[in-house]
Amino acid sequence: MRTMASMEPPIQARGLSKRYGRTRAVTDLGFAVEAGQICGLLGPNGAGKTSTMRMLVGLSSPDAGAATILGRPVGLGSAVLRRVGVLIDGPAFVPHLSGAANLRLLWSATRRAWPPPALDAALDLAGLGPAIGRKVKGYSTGMKQRLMLAQALMRAPDVLILDEPANGLDPAEVRALREHLREMAGRGAAVLVSSHQLAEVQQLATHVVVMNRGRLVAAGPLADLLDDTGTHLIEVDDGERAAAVLGRIPGVATVAARGGEVTVTAPRAASRDLVRALVTAGIGVTAVHQANRSLEDVFLTMTQGDDEHAAR
Length: 312
Fold this sequence. Notes:
With 312 residues, the protein is an alpha/beta fold. It has two domains: 223 residues, Rossmann fold (3-Layer(aba) Sandwich), CATH 3.40.50.300; 62 residues, Alpha-Beta Plaits (2-Layer Sandwich), CATH 3.30.70. Strands 6-7-8-3-9-10 form a six-stranded mixed beta sheet, with helices on both faces. A four-stranded antiparallel beta sheet has the order 2-1-4-5, covered by helices on one side. A hairpin with a 2-residue loop joins β9 and β10. α4 runs antiparallel to α5. The protein is elongated. 38% of the residues are buried.
């Protein structure tokens, strides 16, 4: 029998708000990540992404609202955090200990027997090789990042909250990480990933949450976000006349003609209505294509504007 806690989304933010002095970092933010989802947390620098992640795992307390993980309220030392893999705020290791000793020290806080259940897979993914036995003070920034990734993954968590996890990884390692996260989500883990690498997020994520200046801009399945463009490419025999006809149709936002091709943005008009108007006006239509925008295109459209008063 499922408990009420188990019926709630594994990651949930309800009305989160956070202020640092006079700066509003996050304002009335709400979203959820369900089991099996990989959610990209997106926003320009200063959007409030890291502040949000810190509140989700109890590293920072919200001024208003609440965060739950696996249906449980979160604070420093919360038992539920044993089921969470976290990579936030960069590496913090004991420099005179080896990478392996640091991992063992971090694991000891869980009060569970060594080794962690997914240690070998995490170390393989981190790609540190023999360096895992060397002192961390000799590690590069990228190596420390990969060790942090290993500590987040080694516990086979039910929830993963990762801030820029691909930093310091080469393309092959980024691909391996992508595949690993997909496998974890396939087994029911909930994954929240913050990243500026939008092309990588587009390959990885099933859902996205977009923030700007501390506020929610959009949230939902990635496919819906990319498909909801209302932009059509129409091949015609007279582009200028076609643009004039389409520009008079209610629901058409923009029209641009280039030779025999017209680009129409019409979120509230179906493509068949556009074609019917052209044919009725005696304009030949040879092809109609739904335009596919990249996540980068959608992101820039949503977040363009004045960044004054940006959050952390």
